Amino acid sequence: MNDQERYDNGMQVRRAVLGDAHVDRSLSHINDFNDDFQNFITRFAWGDVWTRPGLTRHMRSMVTLSLLIALNRGDEFRMHVRAAFNNGVTREEMKELFLHAALYCGLPAANQAIHDAEKVFAEMEAANPGSTTRARDGAQG
Hints:
Layout (H helix, E strand, L loop, with lengths): L2 H16 L1 H9 L6 H15 L7 H15 L2 H13 L4 H15 L1 H21 L6 H4 L4
């Protein structure tokens, strides 16, 4: 696979996981300083790692959330909470993940993750108040 194919595959997965609106926002801020970085994350994070067959996107989201809790990366964590719903992760699964993370990452890290996730749930519900969202009830679809 060449770099362009890797980029194209990565962009397809990046859009499927993060959503077009998020990716379009990121790409609208490309400039001479961050252009190489955006290309890099699309090709390698999304085109190489997220396209591998060894884990489902659902599992990758769960692993990503876990790692971001452990590393205390709030902005990325909140972005991936939203993205996890695109990969079929439910609110109940996140609840269990946060409890599990409390054991291995520490109570403060899990507590912060719960608060951050609740903020994301509220934002998602406010943006789409008339519908049943996965953020509210864990339903698929």
